[in-house]
Amino acid sequence: MKNFQLSVVVFIFGLLCFSCSDEKETILFAEDEELVNLSLNIDILGLSENNSSRQQIEDFPICIPATPYYIEIIMMQAGREVVGTSDAPFRIDLAPNQMFTRYVPEMALPAGDYYLDHCAVFTEDGTLMCLAPRFDSPMGRMSAAPMPMSINLVAGSKPFPDVPVLCFDDRDVNEFGYQFFDIQPTLIRNFCFFANYCSDSGRHYPARYELDISVEGVSVYRDIISTNGEENGEYYADPVCVDLPIILDYEEDEKYIDYTLRLLEWEGVYEVDEEMVFNGSLSRADINEKLSGDNIEYEHIFFNCQD
Q1: Which of 98, 130, 215, 241 could form a disulfide bond with 165, CB atoms 3.0-4.6 angstroms apart?
Q2: How far apart are CA 183 and CA 189, in angstroms?
Q3: What would the CATH number be for the domain defined by 28-177?
Q4: DSSP reduced 3-state for 155
Q5: How many CA atoms lie within 13 A of 75 on its CB side?
Q6: Closest Cα to residue 147, out of 102, 182, 187?
Q7: H helices then E strands: how many in the chain?
């Protein structure tokens, strides 16, 4: 009987251990372990203090006339997300009339090496104002500490590391090292393009082309080139598929996505004597129409083909 009770205890303990070992790990530390209260000091690059006003420095993105109110961050340690996640970054309000964050218990962490993987600054109404660029992005060259930014927490210290951010204007978000959906989380749908080219003699070819897409005027995809080839004497092209946002702020038939396809020459297959460009726009209805049921229809574009 004692052996049976012991087996039950071991089994229950095993279940508890298993249930705690899912992918989203939590920081565990001893109750008596000293914690370091981390506060982040936001440094908006390109702005300089001039008495009570701020002036824009040339070559940096232009800031919207607004006041920073809170930030959203993702902190990592040893490859794990420990504060905030990629799906739900952690919000911290700024101290009143200051550029450093308030105390929050989630930012009381054991001493050690961490990385700030993401930092975005918002106004009180939730408008994205500033963004910390990633190290491998064009805008990252403007920052002395692009993302991911190393932060070493030392026991007994009260760290206030500067986090360089850049004003977020309507320039290409890829210049910050992000996709549109990374900084504006929303419902997305996979949408595909396919194109044909017709020669002047009337012969049809799968087209080789370049694709650009902007959402609400912000470029999210640029210079995507279709994959083309030849197999057993037949020319083929793969559809170009991208993730597009479903933004409910727009009416069902209201266009908010613009795309451009530029026909490219296909060496040994066809030549292009003049530039051919196709421009179009999409609404939520246009996207959903292609995704009805289990079938995915392509947005089919024709270059130089008769209707």
Answers
A1: 130
A2: 17
A3: 2.60.40
A4: coil
A5: 23
A6: 182
A7: 3, 22
